[in-house]
Write a structure and sequence with these properties.
Elements lengths: L5 E7 L2 E8 L4 E8 L5 H13 L10 E5 L2 E3 L4 E4 L11 H9 L3 E5 H12 L8 E6 L3 E7 L2 E3 L30 H4 L1 H14 L18 H9 L3 H25 L3 E5 L7 H14 L2 H5 L2 E4 L6 H16 L1
Helix pairs in contact: 1-2, 3-10, 5-7, 6-7, 7-8
């Protein structure tokens, strides 16, 4: 394979995941490192090193960076971070191009993952897609008429910050009652803990023994698969909460397919079944009938693949 067909993709969150990707989306090599959380300069150097490791012995044409925060796409600047170290005072694109010698494209991580699922994953062959990734936070990528929708400044798709509970908890974004405060991985854990504290009937839950240690969303998923009543209840409620929010988007955008990715999909049908049922109950019938709701196919690789393919297509246009 010639170097003309090679691109680098980074998926940047609390873990930096990077890959060398062929133009058809095939991952040729990949690596990951824990992100620096205290010093912006060190963090930027980490990102440059993560790209540079894939240039040894090859010459990729460009690199894409999927960022877990707000990206002003037209200016190619990081605008805000809620779950990452703030590097918005830096011109990240310039810094990375200087350190790597490659053209760099910045975009939101959910946009990158949506692009990958559209190009070579669960949404391949469709034109109107809502992709939602649910993990530490909740983000979305929207493709309409085969065009990734970024909005006026690049901030479209902040699905996790739809307000669903007016008197709800304060969110990292500064608002209250956001979807993310109920349905993200950490908040699924919070709701399990609250149930264990407030309802003695759940003292028999296998999750009760985790209260004094580290209770994680993954542990909740495992317990639900083992038919733990509390875990099943919380995941069923999570599916309904998400389904109500999804129904509004199905009504608004009339998408062909909703694709769910991120760590939450480890729960599989325990989330998908109540979510689909809630969308069926809440959405306009004809809009629901022409929309599929499916799990993502590319898993944790979607962000890296999508970032690389965005770099591919930006490089071609340039």
């Amino acid at each position: 394979m010639s170097d003309d067909e090679l691109f680098v993709g980074l998926d940047v969150g609390r873990m930096i995941r990077g890959a060398l990707v062929a133009s058809d989306g095939t991952i040729l090599s990949q690596d990951r490192i824990v992100a620096e959380v205290t010093e912006p300069r060190v963090f930027i150097d980490q990102l440059a090193a993560a790209i540079n490791q894939f240039t040894r012995g090859t010459r990729p044409k460009a690199a894409g960076v999927g960022w877990a925060g707000l990206v002003n796409y037209s200016q190619q600047r990081i605008a805000a971070n809620t779950n990452l170290l703030d590097v918005s005072p830096f011109d990240l694109r310039f810094e990375l191009e200087k350190s790597t010698g490659l053209p760099i494209v910045l975009d939101n991580d959910a946009n990158a993952a949506a692009y990958a699922e559209w190009q070579c994953g669960a949404a391949r062959g469709t034109s109107n897609i809502l992709f939602v990734t649910i993990g530490t936070g909740i983000g979305a990528g929207i493709i309409l008429g085969s065009q990734l929708q970024r909005g006026a400044c690049g901030f479209a798709g902040e699905f996790g910050h739809i307000r669903v509970e007016p008197d709800g908890l304060e969110c990292a974004c500064g608002s209250t009652g956001c979807l993310e405060t109920l349905a993200s991985g950490p908040n699924i854990v919070r709701r399990v803990r609250e149930q264990l504290f407030s309802d003695p009937s759940f003292s028999v839950s296998q999750l009760a023994s985790d209260m004094e240690g580290t209770l994680t969303a993954q542990r909740v998923f495992e317990a639900a698969l083992d038919h733990d009543e509390l875990a099943v209840k919380v995941l069923n409620e999570t599916g309904q909460i998400l389904g109500s929010a999804f129904a509004s988007v199905v009504n608004l955008l009339n998408v062909e397919v909703v694709v769910l990715g991120g760590g939450l999909m480890a729960a599989g049908d325990l989330i998908l079944v109540p979510l689909r049922e809630q969308v069926r109950r809440s959405a306009v019938g004809v809009a629901y009938d022409c929309c599929r709701i499916v799990a993502a196919q590319l898993g944790r690789d979607a962000g890296m693949i999508g970032a690389a393919l965005l770099a591919r297509d930006s490089y071609k246009r340039g």
